[in-house]
Amino acid sequence: MSWLVTGGAGYIGAHVVRAFRARGIDTVVVDDLSSGRRTFVPEGSPFVHGSILDGALLEDTMQAHDVRGVVHLAGFKYAGVSVQRPLHTYEQNVTGTARLLGAMAASGVDRIVFSSSAAVYGTPDVDLVTEDTPKRPESPYGESKLIGEWLLADQARATGLRHTSLRYFNVVGSGTDEVFDPSPHNLFPLVFDALLDGRTPRINGDDYPTPDGTCVRDYIHVADLADAHVAAARRLDACEPIESVYNLGSGDGVSVGEIMREVARVTGDDFTPEVGPRREGDPARIVASGELAARDLDWRMRHTLGEMVASAWSARRAASVE
Predict the structure, then answer these.
(1) Which of 4, 75, 187, 211 is spaced 20 to 30 A from 33 at the CA atom?
(2) DSSP for 27-40?
(3) Predicted pLDDT at 309
(4) Which residue ranges does the record assign to the NAD-dependent epimerase/dehydratase domain (predicted)?
């Protein structure tokens, strides 16, 4: 029996696949390669090229590989772009999730770990976000993730589906030089690409009400995140009590300025970032408590900021010489 990982050829998904395999759990990957890379999928994990919008393909895959559970990571994840492409976002993230749940029901697969997002909270008015903090998404992306959580809850009431959703924030680092973050929108890739191109990295705003004037966020290592997915899947497999949602937060956060200083130290490039204007809608601080996940999923920050930067930089440099 195996676990299906949708989006398993992506940056996060490929780490999740490796974490499952490291614990002796077979996986099968479905990915349309719209943002993932076939080379990210490790040898030994069957790969199916296709979309989660294709319910028949999903059913065939589940039956052919004796799937017992799903880790659902596939989707359109760019919050800013989702404002310009709302229908595409809803099709990929809402219709896609509904098709997946339908294929699971038809195939007798009754457990799922859903990749949700801190975007469901919008701009919170608390210093430390918990699972009960009001949900006020500010983009079609955030709305689509919240709807995904609702779909799981509704299906659970209707069919007994066992599920949990992991809400996470800024995922960085790498667990292997074989997989790096290629996103054109995330902070680490933007900074590394600038350095590799001989440009000075740029940040957005340095006049926020924070200790160094730059935004404070939760940054978590992708390998720690992947381990939490495995822990959630194991809990579902064992029919142990599990919450419907967990925040995978650091509890204290890191500022963009701190990251820039650590990047300069790790890379040996003693740069001072250019400062652009604030981005509209960027809150000064978003930091979440991970206490609930620590209790049930052995969640904790196992990597320092330096290790996050160093591992991400190593993977990005390895990719640049391929």
Answers:
(1) 187
(2) EEEEE--SS--GGG
(3) 97
(4) 3-249
